[in-house]
Design goal:
Length: 221
């Protein structure tokens, strides 16, 4: 399956890509080499988005490297951004979007000041509304799989139909479509795409195949 190459990384580009493909691949790995293997797999699948979490050793430098190497192919986002200083560093490195597992108004404000997509983390309805009011473009619902999964998303969308939700945790080949059918704008997926054995073997082709499987599921809903 061919996915359109992204030529620019404007805020509209990022939002459009997330809404169209309904998938955010999340890289949480042990080394630069594994992160680059993960990126190569995403590029092989001709998919335009990747999130590098701040838990990856040297994450800021990796974001800068990927942003330069894959400038016309990937929008490289920064994940697990917990405070303002990290947000600033990620944006200077070229991050095309910012993702947090929790709500921090300063992170949202800085992303907005740089006209960059911010996906703030939240779990409860109160937190979700607070994140949206603070200026988050979308809200990452984490850890969604532990509090009801698709049923929890469906319950939230009842009173909050206009807030775009991206569940994280509990999303896999069996549940991805359920999350999207429940009202999710997209799903965040890590290990089911970036399997440990593939990363340790440097097998970017296996990662590419995993990515294509999720693309097919997510774009079919």
């Amino acid at each position: 399956m061919q996915v359109k190459t992204i030529q620019r990384q404007t805020k509209d580009d990022v939002l459009s890509a997330i809404r169209k493909y309904r998938l955010v691949p999340v890289v949480r790995v042990a080394s630069r080499e594994q992160a680059l293997c993960a990126a190569e797999g995403i590029v092989r699948a001709t998919f335009p988005l990747i999130e590098i979490t701040m838990t990856v050793p040297g994450a800021i430098d990796i974001i800068a490297e990927m942003s330069a190497r894959y400038a016309d192919q990937l929008i490289v986002g920064a994940g697990t951004v917990l405070e303002a200083a990290t947000c600033e560093s990620a944006l200077r490195a070229g991050a095309g979007f910012i993702v947090s597992p929790s709500f921090d108004a300063a992170v949202i404000r800085i992303a907005n000041d740089h006209n960059t997509v911010c996906i703030a983390g939240a779990l409860t309805a109160t937190e979700i509304v607070a994140a949206r009011r603070a200026g988050a473009d979308m809200v990452k619902v984490f850890p969604c799989g532990l509090v009801g999964g698709p049923r929890y998303i469906r319950a939230l969308k009842g009173p909050l139909p206009d807030i775009q939700l991206i569940p994280s945790s509990g999303v896999n080949l069996e549940t991805a479509a359920e999350f999207l059918e429940a009202g999710s704008t997209a799903v965040a997926i890590g290990e089911p795409i970036f399997q440990k054995r593939a990363l340790e073997a440097g097998d970017s082709e296996a990662i590419s195949k995993n990515t294509v499987r999720f693309i097919e599921i997510c774009t079919a809903v």
